[in-house]
Here is the input.
Amino acid sequence: MQNLKDKVAVVFAASGDIAGAVARSFSQHGAKVYVTARNLNAVNVLAGEIRASGGHAEAAKVNALNEMEIDTFLKKVASDNGRLDVIFNGIGVDYSEMGGRPPTTAATFEQFMAPMEKICGSQFLTSRVAAKYMMQTQSEGTILLLTAALSRSKLPNLAGITAASAAVEGLTRVMAAEWGGNGIKVICICAGALMETRRISGWIDAAAKHLEMPTEQLVAQYKAFDILKTSPTLKQVGETAAFLASETGVAFNSHIVDVDCGKLNIL
Here is the structure.
């Protein structure tokens, strides 16, 4: 079923695993997809894969932390198509950008603020610029943000990214309230730890090293909180995003949608 037939969708930070999966699902559901990232080669490859599968995709180099680049690009997309229906921002941070996992008493202010600026700051920029062009073209579109379950977890040595994840969820509710009158819905996807992704596998390796324990033991501890005997996949996250952006997905607005198959340790 093509829930997004003839829709125009833009995916930021599409060089990442989650954003790439979302872009593929948007295309499979009939959307014309623009994939962007700072790494043009990576999104060119992604766009080529989508076209080879029969979809319509274009790639562009856009820094999702540069408001001028975001505005210039979305202005062109809206002008070329007469509409802007969906955006998704899959930006994330690596341990290296937070100085590893320093305790809160040792972390510098810059280390604490790095995830806030990159994660929440980027979502703020792409969302508000997209809303402007959705209003101008009367698209009544969907803005999809991404957060992490850290927002409702109790893990040590992750003050910055935990605060940033919670901030993205708060931002979602505020923007939904502001733009709902223009027919724009704003939803935040909270994906569980996806073992398929390079970022999560890297985090697990780093945490295992920090805690001086086998990687397999750390994975087993995390999966011990699974309600079902299964874990979410990248494809399921992509399909969820496509559903939320569809007409049927209008029932969800201002919500934080967990895609984790249920976790006992997440509120």
Residues 46 and 52 are 10 Å apart (CA to CA). The domain at 8-259 is CATH 3.40.50.720 (Rossmann fold).
